[in-house]
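Chapter summary example.
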Amino acid sequence: MRHLFIIPLLAILFTACGGDDSDGTEQPTFPIEILGDWAEQAVETTVTYTDGSIESTTNLTEGAKRLVISPNGIATSLSLLPSGQWTEDYRGYWAYSDPRLMVRTPSGDVYYTLRTLSNTTMVLETNTKKTGDDDSEEELTPSTPPTEITVASTSVKITYTRL
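The structure predicted for these 163 residues follows.
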């Protein structure tokens, strides 16, 4: 008779203990595929003028530059020297807010739109505009309202492959 009470009690205990798949750690707020060592393969630059003309160039860099995105929030840019040695261009912080990647460089923060991301390929794009009264460039961000007539805009698309 005592066995009849034990079986329902065990069923209640095992049911109450299940259901929580969390191990107490926070989930990343960025796609995990973004982490790693990336080799720059091509840089496509497109300049659009208000008269409708467009200039487009593609430079194949074939791995002469690298971008290392670490889980600790550090991004490192490296360049290949003619001697075959890698040199550090800069080291700065990175942050991600879907679909934008911000990388802090010595010359300021650069905001990229993440166009493609897989286990093998990443495509980042950044846009700037030139204003008609000077040669300054400013980052196009969702919070930057157009204050002057745009004479030209530049889009730079960088394609990386995972090392």
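To summarize the output: The longest strand covers residues 36-49.
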